[in-house]
């Protein structure tokens, strides 16, 4: 079976890219492929924003990605620079800045682009949404 890295750059507010990425990942798992990482970059980092509360009749991408991780243990990784630019902060970053709240929800973790590219070498395929 093949190994995949998934790159999510689309915002959950403006396109179906994130929902399509999640559906694609779920199908990969059903087909017994391996997902090395789901990397959220550019506006894709908003999928990791715990403070996002869509109306009750709309999907909540944060909850959906967390549920996917809980079912598959797939690493959900956010670009630390892209996240900071968009106000998505880890607990450590919020404390360093003197904020009382943070909004990067575990199991999302942060890393830099260099780590993304290093892990990408283990994958057979890169698919971007």
UniProtKB/TrEMBL annotation:
It comes from Alteromonas salexigens. SUPFAM superfamilies: DsrEFH-like (SSF75169). Pfam families: DsrE (PF02635). Keywords: Cytoplasm, Transferase. It is found in: Cytoplasm. This is Sulfurtransferase complex subunit TusD. NCBIfam families: PRK00207.1, sulf_tusD_dsrE. Gene3D superfamilies: DsrEFH-like. Belongs to the DsrE/TusD family. It comes from the Bacteria.
